[in-house]
TrEMBL record:
It comes from the Bacteria. Signal peptide: none annotated. It comes from Dokdonella soli. Residues 148-246 form the HTH araC/xylS-type domain. This is AraC family transcriptional regulator.
Length: 253
């Protein structure tokens, strides 16, 4: 992509008077909750899908309140722990399984991703969150506390040697049962999900750090730079160096 096209894109986006179109788009998706919080955990924006779940009459009622004001304590504690991790590391939280409440007030599970929001100086000032309801897996009993514990462990220890058998044992399942649940929920095998998690973490480091590619490879669970580069290119279509240069500067190397 040329510098001229990037400049044109940036100029166009700056002409948009308000970012409220994002909120409006998510308001039309009843199975997806969208929100923005500041660093104190206060809601700045909440999509319509979450209003009824929180017992509110209007989205305005959520402004300035925290998860502890709106959700049961165990849910609020988990959400806040994730937020604090994001603010501490500056890295996104991707594909977390979280307990949620549906529109009929029944409980279930959702798949949540949180991205840091930065100001013009690069400081993290808040986060944006999208949570996708997993209605069918929840009602089929495919997600439970033990399964979530295994996924949490994978997300926290992805850079360490992990195998599907150990994760299955942690979830109280056979390897075959664990594999079927992974495919149903994430549309990936356990091995593919682990690779995705490692590649996602590596991509963030390529953009937001000055670590060498070899250092990033070892920090994200790959045995060496060669295996990391091969897997990264297979997944993204770009070498790690090309990805870093393109995202940072909008140009190829």
């Amino acid at each position: 992509m040329s510098t001229e096209l990037l400049d044109w894109r940036d100029a166009f986006m700056k002409r948009i008077a308000s970012p409220s179109f994002v909120e409006a788009l998510f308001d039309r998706l009843p199975d997806i909750v969208f929100s923005i919080k500041d660093r104190s955990g206060r809601y700045v924006v909440m999509s319509e899908a979450c209003v009824g779940r929180c017992g509110l009459t209007s989205k305005r009622d959520a402004i300035g309140r925290t998860a502890f004001d709106l959700f049961p304590a165990p849910m609020a504690e988990r959400y806040t722990h994730q937020d604090e991790q994001l603010f501490r590391t500056g890295r996104p939280i991707v594909d977390n399984l979280d307990l949620t409440v549906y529109g009929d007030r029944s409980s279930g599970w959702c798949l949540s991703t949180k991205e840091p929001l930065r100001d013009s100086e690069g400081q993290v000032i808040g986060l944006a969150c999208i949570s996708k309801d997993l209605v069918e897996p929840s009602r089929a009993g495919l997600v439970d506390v033990s399964f979530v514990r295994a996924i949490d462990y994978l997300l926290e220890h992805f850079a360490e040697p992990l195998c599907a058998e150990d994760l299955a044992r942690m979830a109280g399942l056979s390897p075959a049962q664990f594999g079927r649940r992974m495919k149903k929920i994430f549309h990936l095998t356990a091995a593919q999900y682990l690779i995705k998690t490692r590649v996602d973490a590596a991509a963030q480091r390529l953009v937001n750090s000055d670590q060498t590619i070899a250092e990033i490879a070892l920090a994200t669970g790959f045995c060496d730079q060669s295996s990391f580069s091969h897997r990264f290119r297979h997944t993204t279509g770009l070498t790690p160096g090309q990805y870093r240069q393109f995202v940072r500067d909008g140009r190829w190397i």
